Amino acid sequence: MTFFGLAAVNDLQPGKKAESTLSKFKDLLFSVFAFPFVVLLFWAIFAYDRELVYPATIDAFFPPWMNHAMHTFVLPILLGEVLVQPHVYPQTKHALTALGIVGLAYLSIIWVYMSVGIWVYPLLGRFSAAGLVGFFFFNMSVVILLYLLGNELNRRVW
Fold first, then answer.
1. Is residue 143 pLDDT above 90, yes or no?
2. Which of 29, 48, 75, 143 has the highest Cβ tally under 10 A?
3. Are 78 and 153 in contact (CB under 8 A)?
4. What is the pLDDT of residues 12-67, one digit of tens each?
5. How far is CA 77 from CA 20, 65, 107, 125, in A?
6. pTM (two decimals)
């Protein structure tokens, strides 16, 4: 949502330069954060065991169509964005730095567990400490591969 809002604001700038700061930031958001990691991870875990990421009890106040709006419809929109709008991908070292910072910030979900005693995602409660480390490293590896895939896809299309 942040990316698409920023893209709309960027497109409304009168007489904007092609390489404006806002345009560069928009491309950074798209290339590093928007590509479909959440879609892939959510549905992979959902297919394995729904209760680990989206318990059935949630359906009473968070309807399935809303779940799809957040975890499914994003993918075709992102792929359409790749096809209709060229993006300038940041240097790989800058992209990996940004991904690393977000990955470390995401570890704050461990703080939530330590403070409240409840895992944000029930799946995480099934891992040992070593399993959590492995899970987070696996996820970061997938994110990096998706960044590289998105960069290559953008390069081939444009």
1. no
2. 143
3. no
4. 555 555 567 777 888 888 877 766 777 888 888 889 898 888 888 888 888 888 88
5. 24, 16, 28, 32
6. 0.72
List, as one string, the DSSP characters of the chain: -HHHHHHHHHHH-TT--TT-HHHHHHHHIIIIIISSHHHHHHHHHHHH-GGGTS-GGGGGTS-HHHHHHHHTTHHHHHHHHHHHS---PPPHHHHHHHHHHHHHHHTHHHHHHHHHS--SSGGGGGS-HHHHHHHHHHHHHHHHHHHHHHHHHHHHH-
Contact 41, 139 (CB under 8 A): yes
